[in-house]
Write a structure and sequence with these properties.
The chain is mostly helical. The protein is built from three helices and no strands. The chain has a domain of about 30 residues. About 0% of the residues are buried.
Length: about 70
């Protein structure tokens, strides 16, 4: 991967978004609980560790996802 700013790739708009709407709503609903489980048990040092060189810490990523989720 050459561009680390896009670790999961560029967004591709689904052809039939409405057909996937129920699945997408379920994903949005389950995100907070999944995020909580993902970081459960991490200590302060681990939360303050960047997920890649020059990247955000795990704590910053979690806060960003939560903020984005609330605003979305």
């Amino acid at each position: 991967m050459n561009d680390l700013r896009l670790p999961i790739g560029r967004f591709e708009f689904p052809e039939d978004l409405l057909a996937e709407l129920d699945v997408l709503i379920d994903e949005i609903e389950s995100t907070p609980a999944e995020l909580r489980r993902a970081v459960a048990g991490l200590d302060e040092e681990r939360l303050d560790t960047p997920y890649r060189r020059g990247g955000w810490t795990i704590r910053q990523v979690v806060h960003h996802v939560a903020d984005s989720h609330i605003n979305g």
